[in-house]
Amino acid sequence: MNSNFKWFYALIFSVSVTGCSYIRGFFPDKHHDYQLSQELPVLKLPSDLNKNAELEKVINEKPKTVKPAELKADELSAQELAAAPVPEPESEAREKPVELPKVIPAELVRLDDGETRLHIGAPVAKSWYLVSKALSRNSLEVTNRDDEKKLFEVQYGFTDEPFKDSTLWDQVVFVFAGAKSNEKAHLLKLIESGNGTDVLVYDKDEKPLINETAVGLLKLIQTTLLAEQTGKDDKAAKEAKDNQAQ
Question: DSSP string of the chain?
């Protein structure tokens, strides 16, 4: 009997405690809430975060579509200029290769002061190669070659012998026999002239030579260039030399 009363009192106590907690939920503790408000200060965002928030707001905004009719005159012209094709720089246009004829002309030109020059219808770089090849074909001794100044120093003596394709034996004889007694040092200078190149003959003091020897050296180079390009034989080369002399 006593045990039954104990269980009954225990049940009544648990129900009363649960009921008090449930009823207390309807009446919040204002004093406790006040303490929490005093202990936890209001959170303030740093200035950097505020700036980022403003920036994000600007980024998220959709761009405003402007109709062509609403554009101002200066804005419209700027857009038209941006859409216009950009012309190629002048440097790129100048770098295009120049088309040379199959037979590059080589003509003797006599100036008013009596000086004779050989005009080659090719740029200086190409003419440098052609003149160098012509000197080698005639087994002329080149004692100095200045690519930067475009200057040859050649041992040459005037002769009436026509140009001929030197054989291996001729080259061997030239090496062991050396230069002839009448050969002297002459300077060949290449300068740009219009769309072509002029070949000048100087003495050792770099003064223009106006004599038969200078003309003979230029004629020899001219005849060799024409014969090399057209495949002419010795007879045809001699005829070209005679025609230029007339």
Answer: -HHHHHHHHHHHHHHHHHHHHHHHTTS--HHHHHHHHHHSPPP---HHHHHHHHHHHHHHSPPPP--GGGS-HHHHHHHHHHHSPPPPPHHHHHTSPPPPPSS--EEEEE-TTS-EEEEESS-HHHHHHHHHHHHHHTT-EEEEEETTTTEEEEEE----PPP----HHHHHHHHHH-S-TT-EEEEEEEEEETTEEEEEEE-TTS-B--SHHHHHHHHHHHHHHHHHHHT--HHHHHHHHHHHH-
Tell me, what's the pLDDT at 147? 93
Residue 97 lies in a domain: no
- The model's pLDDT over 170-194, given as tens digits with 9 standing for 90+, comes to 555 555 554 455 688 899 999 999 8
Domain membership of residue 15 (yes or no) is: no
- CATH number of the domain within which 174 lies: 3.30.310.170
